[in-house]
Amino acid sequence: MLNADIAKRREAAISQGVGMQTQVYVDKALNSEVWDVEGNRYIDFAAGIAVVNTGHCHPKVMAAVADQAARFTHTCHQVLPYENYIRLGERLNEKVPGDFDKKTVFVTTGAEAVENAIKVARIATGRPAIIAFGGAFHGRTFMGMSLTGKVAPYKKGFGAMMPDVYHVPFPVELHGTSVDEAMEGLTKLFKTDLDPDRVAAIIIEPVQGEGGFYPAPKELMVQLRKLCDDHGIVMIADEVQTGFARTGNLFAMEGYGVAADITTMAKGLAGGLPLAALTGRAELMDAAHPGGLGGTYGGNPLGIAAANAVLDVIEEEDLCARANELGSRLKQRLESIRANTPEMVDVRGPGFMIAAELNTADGKAPNPDMANAIRAEALKRGLILLTCGVYGNVIRFLAPITVQDEVFAEGLDILEDSIAAVRKQAKAA
């Protein structure tokens, strides 16, 4: 079986609306390595977009799923509930930042978690309006698209977005937007377009994901928390991509000294199985009437079993410390590369959620062509990379936090060689 043959079948069978970064068709995967149907080996620096933080097929996670599958795979918790669902809720209520009583709802995807967080904020406050940030990504459902601060490819051509959703600038010093300017954007919004007494929630990613891996400055989070408190606004932290040890803490908000009222999560929660959740203040989470939240597959038994095992692995293998160690090593290597690569204008990110931003050689314009060329060159050499950013000029690094030292070192060598090859090709052109 060949990748090219499957690609032809895919083209005939699957909507082109489902984008793809590679034509590598996977046969098997283990920890940080993937083998395709032709037997080619790849080092995975994507982790399914920060999903398999505990590595592909972690034995403890696989054992938990197998044990659960032998018992039952689905009953719908709303019909026949099960204990491990409750146990996972208890654990998240304890671990999600915030010194207050919490409750949890399980759903299936990150976008669904965000949708339900908005529902909770609206019913709890009796207010309709939502504020999000430019460059944000919150999903592909209509509310998710509306909240997302990037038009192409997420909003383009899909018609009118949901009403009462507003965007303000996200502070990125590299792009000339400060915290003061972001907060001034909120002040102007409240003066010209939106009564703050109509605002149900402000939603923010502690580190923007698709938007370019820009960490929210601590000063911004502190000021947002005060603004929300002053106006009775629900603060929602979208930790779908930042959660579960990726940033060096179980949740990125642990690094800010303030807590959100509701936290959304998915991706790394269940080690590759579809599971998402929102955890928040108990009085907010109880505002909805019975039946107003939930879903047929929400909290599927296999995903719940996997998630309990993932939390065990993170604790037992101290993956938060491991993320900080790996991130430090990655940043050092990237800074070494940057010293001889003028196009690499920034290296950033907490823990093991690291990005490198590329501009033209004069530093004046985003360079998505170079970012994509590096991704493609690395793929040829056996390294899976992802790009992101509003301009598509950011390479993001999301290897499993369990990546073996020798495989990590091999991947970094491929990365450096790929960057050198792309620069050489550009000079020769």
UniProtKB/TrEMBL annotation:
One function term, GO molecular function aspect: 4-aminobutyrate:2-oxoglutarate transaminase activity
EC number: 2.6.1.19
PROSITE patterns the record matches: AA_TRANSFER_CLASS_3
Statement: the UniProt record of this protein carries the keyword Protease: no
Annotated CDD domains: OAT_like (cd00610)
InterPro entries: 4NH2But_aminotransferase_bac, Aminotrans_3, Aminotrans_3_PPA_site, Class-III_PLP-dep_AT, PyrdxlP-dep_Trfase, PyrdxlP-dep_Trfase_major, PyrdxlP-dep_Trfase_small
Gene Ontology BP terms: gamma-aminobutyric acid metabolic process
Cofactor: pyridoxal 5'-phosphate
Enzyme class, spelled out: transferase
The entry's keywords: Aminotransferase, Pyridoxal phosphate, Transferase
Top-rank taxon: Bacteria
Annotated family: Belongs to the class-III pyridoxal-phosphate-dependent aminotransferase family.
NCBIfam families: GABAtrnsam, PRK07495.1
UniProt protein name: 4-aminobutyrate--2-oxoglutarate transaminase
